[in-house]
Amino acid sequence: MEVGGVESTAEDQEKWLADAIALVQHNAFYMHRALDGNNLRDALKYSAQMLSELRTSKLSPQKYYELYMRLFGELQRLEIFFQDETKRGRTPADLYELVQHAGNILPRLYLLCTVGSVYIMSNEAPAKDVLKDLVEMIRGVQHPIRGLFLRNYLTQISRDKLPDAGSPFEGEGGSVMDAVEFVLQNFTEMNKLWVRMQHQGPAREKEKREKERSELRDLVGKNLHVLSQLEGVDLEMYKDVVLPRVLEQIVNCKDEIAQFYLMDCVIQVFPDDFHLQTLEILLSACPQLQPSVDVKTVMSQLMERLSKYAAASPEVLPDFHQVEAFSKFSQAVIQVVEAQPDMPLVSAISLYVALLTFVLNVHSDQLEYVDQVLGLCVKRLEGKGRVKDAKATKQLVLLLSGPLEKYKDVVVLLKLSNYAHVMKHLDDDNNRSMAVVLIQSVLSNYILITEPDEVDALLNLLRELVQDSGGAPSNAPPKYNWQQAEDEDFKEEQNLMARLVHMFRNDELEVMFKILEIARKHLCQGGPRRMQYTLPPLVFSTLKYVHALHEKELEEGLNDRSGSPSMRKAFQFLNTIVEALAMIPAAELALRLYLQCAEAAGTCGLEPVAYEFFTQAFLLYEEEISDSKAQVTALHLIIGTLQRTRVFGVENRDTLTHKATGYSAKLLKKPDQCRAVVSCSHLFWVEGERGIRDGERVLLCLKRALRIANAVQQMSSATRGTSGPMTLFVEILNTYLYYFDRMLPQITSTVIQGLVELIVTETQTEGSVHEALVDTYLANTLRYIQFQTQKGDFTADRYSTIQLP
Questions:
Q1: Do residues 135 and 185 make contact, with C-beta atoms less than 8 angstroms apart?
Q2: What is the pLDDT of residues 18-57, one digit of tens each?
Q3: How far apart are alpha carbons 629 and 283 in whole angstroms?
Q4: Count of beta carbons in the 10 Å neighbourhood of residue 797
Q5: What job does the chain carry out (predicted)?
Q6: Are 125 and 119 in contact, with CB atoms under 8 Å apart?
Q7: Largest CA distance in the chain
Q8: Long-range contacts of 709-716 (CB under 8 A, 24+ apart)
């Protein structure tokens, strides 16, 4: 605080306060002695000298408040003395006249207020007249700090003496209107003094003055609290008198600090039902506040309070509809934003968030209200593109998250036409994060997307995850390496997208196929990096549709071997999807999916379709898969799928089987060749309906496998000097036993006997390599043969001819 043009220090303030308190204590001592001796004249003399310390201009508001509180206690004791004086025969009117002879105005007015309190309690004069007289005389003190504390003292001593409804001072002492008028007048004058503090002193101390004013704000706010506690202030009086007068003062003071604080006070101290019924009046003040006032916080607090009111008392919800609360709030938000063209974007969006929160809490059944709020935000963001401000972005995310948290159903969000428009204004990273939240909501709440237009809207909403905007375009060259930019976040996002595809369901097959077509339209625009994640689940969803369609056609008696138009269309659909994957290239993935489609076509009895899918799989194997390990895996998948597919006629099956066995013999590593040839033997012995039983070719495959295994042993002996483990021979022996159990005529006990003797002899040869796993494998195999001989049935007879070493 500046005194005499020089800024005081904290030490100065402490010293001045200590000096003032010392003088107060000195005069209070003599005042107490006069009070004890019933010496009125000396009591008034020393009390006036004590109160003169409040005339100081040196103390800061905080230190002045400490001094005031010291004196307040002494004034309470003095008031008790005045009451005792009236009991001893002195009239309150005499006291009222007597204290006006004090020399200085400030002590005189404090004494007047103290005697006035006694005067009102005596009922010798109407309370309204005494209060009116006091509030008028106090105008004589215009120094901001002194005047504020003096009027605060008047508020404190009069709050229980107002002519309120049910009060002992009502009637001749006045009416509720007199009480309201007194408090409003005192409030108005206090606010003027409080605002005047802002304009005293040099501009460089503006921040310091604002801090000092904030320390004194409760002095002004107490008047509004007193008004809210008056029993006689009903809704009508509040609406017609109290609120208009208070708002008039708030708007006219044109001070940022006062307007914000007092609006907050009004919202906090008066009842919720009053706010609801006077919403239009209260909100009309918001656009008239200074542009620098934090209107969004004011309105947010009002909406939050009414939201809690509705939540705590559901029976009042009809009142919200009756007064058209949403419409009034919405209009007020529009007016505030228009009245402040320079309002920061984050403040405007915060207003929309508050309005949306109000709607979700009070009018959650009115989706059109939710959409209107989003529409207001879209209008405000028009022409601004992606929002780059971090705080504004955070508010946008809150705006988008609100409906999701409330309804927990993305399908509901899809009905909001403005939701997607708001989401477009998020930057790439936040848009993706919001999209992830939407998908997680679908998955965690198990929300099925059942309509084509819903699927279309949702995938448009998730555009940042669906389309590969950051990588290569969807028409990237065939050799584009989609693996080069993989990261964990990207994988997580795309795995969520893959899971989302499985939530697209409809029991009506025609509708389901439309859903699949829409999904393909979006997902095939995803680019190479994304398609490897999103297209496989689409393939499996389509295969599920195919199986359902097949069952339906069987029930209806349709058995067209060329396939119904719907079935053919479905497989053509599948082919385009897998072909898109093959073009990335993602050859291994595409091959697996071709085989899945081939097996499904076989189940549906569509031989030409199944043959075509196998053909595509073989072409991928030949042209795109060059890694030896990948070739082994792919070939075993082809053999396994071909073995399970029983739709082929002799010619087509022979062609495919020949291809598979041919590729088996061309693998790079001999052990891989051996195992693949063994697997091919299963292509010639398939049990069940339409099975194949060609024992000769089974035996041919096994013999070829033995020759390859023998070649492996010879190569090992030539290069390492040892024959190597007998792993391949033991595996072939187990395959022989498999067919022996199935009683292939070509697989005899003699053949098995010879193979067992060969393996045992080789393992016992000096210098042979032993591996624990292989030895255990062989021991278990021999134990199996031994077990079979002990069964005591036909099986035992067949196995008994095999002599174990």
A1: yes
A2: 999 999 999 999 999 999 999 988 999 999 999 999 998 8
A3: 74
A4: 11
A5: Plays a role in vesicular protein sorting.
A6: yes
A7: 141
A8: 709/674, 711/670, 712/670, 712/671, 712/674, 713/762, 715/670
